[in-house]
Write a structure and sequence with these properties.
Strand order of the largest sheet: 14-13-12-11-7-10-9-8-15
Strand content: 25-35%
GO molecular function: nucleotide binding
Protein name: Gfo/Idh/MocA family oxidoreductase
InterPro entries: Gfo/Idh/MocA-like_OxRdtase_N, Gfo/Idh/MocA_Oxidoreductase, GFO_IDH_MocA-like_dom, NAD(P)-bd_dom_sf
Structural class: alpha/beta
Number of helices: 11
Distance between the termini: 44 Å
Order of helices and strands: EHEHEHEHEHEHEHHHEEEEEEEHHE
Length: 327
């Protein structure tokens, strides 16, 4: 079995989370770390003493000619030319969502990726939960009426998160998982109308994102959905709500992203709890795809993630203009 040599860009909490999964996969060698945060770089480097440490992705790519893949876990506005450089060197990419905050950057990167033909995977790990495919199968044989997606929680403790130019806002950076799974279940959106409000959170410097929003989506297949997003809860007192509800003609599906799914009808409730191990499943699929050079093993390619980015940016555009946005 060929050893896959991996470099990591970003050594924060989620980078270290991915590192834990990578170190548990046979045939993977983490050979390098890169980040501008010296303290985090040294701390993460201690977990793999043999790995080489770099202050940025450019130096890592220049000094590591045998890299097979890079795992990218950095803030969305700081990618710069990372994807283009990796593509030109034939290095596969696993990129945490959102891939960036503008369509111009996404389309530039996609062109380089497609020209190089490298393997890509984007961190929409929810697609790798086997229960999602069971829900998808149910939808093939049942009529869904009302559909409600929810990501209602607190503001992440990250200084850049509430600045839309850096994160894209809650819809682009966080609730994107709901938008993406709805694309996975219902197909491509046709239009979206979004309204939002501010003032629920204490004022913060440079904060310009909505504290909550409500989106109405029409899909090309005729399905309608509402997506509720909020980042204002006091989670020492309140319980968050992250998932979606699907109201079928004869039953209801309640899906919790991190808890489980309930199938409810007049005969009772069948509950299927699950652990969020699909992050590891997504990483295992990426490693296997790189080893086999087989993009078909990936459930969320860069090209597919560009469509989810366009969906969430359309919601932002509707917020800004107060109009229905066609996709």
């Amino acid at each position: 079995m060929k050893t896959i040599k991996v470099g990591m860009v970003g050594c924060g909490n989620f980078g270290n989370f991915h590192l834990t999964n990578l170190l548990s996969i046979p045939g993977v060698e983490v050979v390098a770390f890169a980040t501008g945060n010296r303290e985090k770089l040294l701390a993460t480097g201690k977990r793999v003493p043999s790995a080489r440490l770099y202050p940025d992705h450019k130096e890592m790519l220049e000094q590591e000619p045998e890299l097979d893949a890079i795992v990218v876990s950095i803030t969305p506005y700081r990618h710069g030319d990372l994807e283009v450089m990796a593509a030109k060197r034939g290095v596969a990419l696993y990129i945490e969502k959102p891939i960036c905050v503008t369509m111009e950057e996404a389309e530039r990167n996609l062109a380089a990726i497609e020209q190089a033909g490298i393997i890509t995977s984007v961190g929409y790990q929810g697609r790798y939960n086997g229960e999602i495919d069971k829900v998808k199968k149910i939808l093939e044989n049942h009529t869904a009426g009302l559909v409600v997606g929810k990501w209602i929680y607190s503001v992440p403790d990250l200084p850049w998160w509430r600045t839309r130019a850096k994160s894209g806002g809650q819809l682009v950076e966080q609730c994107t998982h709901v938008f993406d799974l709805f694309r996975y279940l219902f197909g491509e959106p046709a239009s979206i109308y979004t309204v939002g409000c501010k003032g629920l959170n204490p004022p913060q410097p440079e904060a310009d994102t909505e504290d909550c929003s409500y989106s109405t989506v029409a899909f090309k297949n005729g399905q309608m959905a509402a997506i509720l997003a909020g980042c204002y809860l006091d989670t020492t007192k309140a319980v968050g709500d992250i998932g979606f509800d699907i109201y079928l003609e004869d039953s209801k599906i309640e899906y919790g992203f991190f808890t489980g799914v309930k199938y409810i009808d007049q005969s009772g409730t069948r509950e299927v709890p699950f652990e969020p191990v699909y992050h590891k499943l997504a990483m295992e699929a990426f490693v296997s795809a790189v080893r086999d050079h087989d993009q078909s093993q990936i459930k969320s390619s860069y090209a597919d993630a560009v469509k989810t980015l366009a969906f969430t940016l359309a919601a932002n555009r509707s917020l800004e203009t107060g109009t229905l946005v066609q996709l």
